[in-house]
Write the C-alpha cells for this entry.
Amino acid sequence: MTRQLAMVIDLNKCIGCQTCTLACKSQWTDRKGREFMYWNHVETRPGQGYPKGWEEAGGGWDGDVLKPGRLPRLREDYGIPASFNYEQALFHENAPALKSEQPMQWGPNWDEDQGAGEYPNGYFFYLPRLCNHCTNPACRAACPRQAIYKREEDGIVLVDQERCRGYRYCVAACPYKKIYFNPLAGKAEKCIFCYPRVEKGVPQACAFQCVGRARHVAFRDDREGAIWKLVEEWKVALPLKAGFGTQPNVFYVPPLSPPTFDAEGKPTQVPRIPDAYLEGLFGPAVHEVLARLNAEIARKQAGQTSPLLDMLIAFRHGNMFRLDRLGEKGNAA
Amino acid sequence: MIRLAALLSLALCVGEAQAADPLEVLRGEGYASAAAVVKALPIDPKDSAWEKAAPISLLAYPQSTVKPGLAEDGAAPLKMELRVLAKGRELAVRLSWPDAAIESWRTDRTDSFADSAALQFALPGREGTLPYIGMGEPDRPVDLWLWRNGRETEKLSAHGFGTLERQPGKLPDGDALWENGTWQIVLTGTIPNKAGPLLALSAAIWNGGDAGRDGRKRHTAWHLITFPGARTNSKVLSGLVKEGTASGNPERGKNLAEEHGCSGCHRLPGGEPVETGPDLTLAGGQHWPGYLRRSVKRPSSFLVPVDRFAEEGNLTSGKSLMPSLDLSDQDVEDLVAYLRSMK
C-alpha cells in the first residue's frame, strides 16, 4: 500500500507574502524554460487565479472517465515574465522611470488583493496552491506513456523525464493546472514535493520557509501527525475542489472572516466571505468546519484549553513536520 | 490474371527466387517500389536528383485505434508522395503532403504543436512477416526517424505502444520546405538495423494545427522498398508475397463477417460505432494484408496493446477479446479480401 505524505495549509495564517513561492522558485524553477512556472504560488481569492481561469479549464474525473481539458497559453494565461530597463533606470542621473520593456497584460498574482465585494464589505483571502499529489491523479491516467507515477513510499507524483515526450495530455487533464509544459525542454514538469529534501527528513521548501507557520506536513496514516489530527480527527481541513475527483493530498483550513457592516455601519452576524463562495471551493463541509473553528476560538477566549487551536498556532515550528518514514521518530527539523 | 501468373511462377521456382522477380506482384498491388541508387544523396527537397526516384503515391489514414486519435474528428485520408534514393547503406527519403498552414515548434508557447513527420522502418521476419503498423510488436521492433518543424530530428526505436525510445548514434539529417500549401521534407541517414536488401517503410504525419502529436496522426500502411541488384532470401520473398496478396472474394468475405458478427465488436463501413475492438472502417488502408490475416486467424497471436481490447480489461491476460473462429483457409482469404477493400 502506498503511504501518502500530505500537507495542511491554514488559510487563516497565510498573509500572501509569497515566501513559499520564492522558496520554491529559487530552488526549482528559475531558468531554462521554467520562468513562467510556479510549482507553488499564492493567489488572491476571489480572483482569476494562475493560470488565469484554471477552475474553468477542465480536466479531472467524471466517475472513472477523464474529462476533457484545455491547455493554458503561455502569454495569455500564465504570463510571460517581463524584463525591465534596470540599466537605464537605476545607474544614471536624470534616468527614465523604471518600467517593463514589454507591454504587460497578465501574470501570476496580477489580480492580487483585488478580491470582491463593495466597501465597506470588500473581502479577499489568500490561497496557496501546489500539486496536490492526488491519490487518483488525472495527469497520471492521461499519459499514454506511463511517464507519470506515484511513489510507493510517500505517494509523491513525479514525471519521468526520460519517458515524457511532451504530449501534454497531463496538462489538460490536471484540473488544478499544476503540471506545466516546458517549451524549451519539450517535457512536462511539476512540483516534486521536494522529494530530495523529504528523503533527508527536511520539509518541503514552501512549508519550511512559511513565515506564517501555516503549513503542516505528515504522512496521512501517522496518528501523531498534524494531517491525521486536522483532517481525520478534528475534521477542520478540506481538499480544494474535491468535485474534480482526483482526491488531493493538500488540505486547507478554510478562512474565517470579520463580519460585514450593515447600512448603519454596525457589524452584523454575517461573515465577509460569503459561505456560498467558500462552499464552491471547499464543499458543503466548510460550514461545519467554520462553526468548529469559531467554537474552539470561543473556548480559548473563555480561558479553556483547545488542543486544536494549539496545533494550528504551532508554538514550535519543528512540531509542524513529521517526515520520518517509519512514523516513529519525530522530525528532523 | 497478372497476379495469378506471378504466383504461379513463384510456385514453380521455390528456392531460386532470382529467376523471376516475385515482388513484381507486390509492385503491381502498390505495396512495393524500388529505390533509385545515386552517387550522392540530396538533402535539398528541390534537388534535381529526386527526379531519378519514381514517385510512390500513398494515402495516409487517420489513426483510429487508440484515443485520442484523429478518426474521432472525422479526419479524411491525405495523399502523400514518397521518393526514395539510396547510396550504399544510406537512404534519403522525400515526403510531400498537403498542409494549409505552417506550424512550428514554439518556445514562447505552451499550447502549440509543430507539424511533424516520421518514417518507420522494419525488416520482414524469416517468414516475411511484418510488424503491427503502430510502433511494432514485442518481438518485431521498428526503427523511426522523426522530424518536427523547428526541432532537432530524432532517431528512435519501439516495440509496441508507449515503448518509443531514443537511440544513440548520428541523428538523421533533415530539411524541409513549405510551399503553396505543401510540405516537402527530406530525411536522410543510415538504414537502421542490419537492413538487408529489402526494407518495409511507413510514414506518419502530424498537423500542428490539429494539436497533432502522439496518436493524433495520419499514417500509411507498410510499403516495401527494394534495392536494385540486391538478393533477398527466397523464403522471405515468398512469405512477403503470400502476406501481401489476398486472393479471396470480398463479397463472400462480407457475408462471412455478417455471419460471424464481426460488427458486434468492430465498426465496419456503414455500421454502428462499436468500440469493443478497433475501428475497421479503414483497416485495408492502414494495415498490411498479412497483418489482417494474422488478426483474423489467430487473434491472440498479437494483441493491439490497449487494455480494453484484452480479456479482463487487462493486457496482462494475454488474451484478445476477439474469439478464435473456426474458419477454413478460404474463409480467411475471403475475410482478408473484404477487410482489404476497406479504405
Summary: The CA atoms of residues 17 and 42 of chain A lie 8 Å apart.
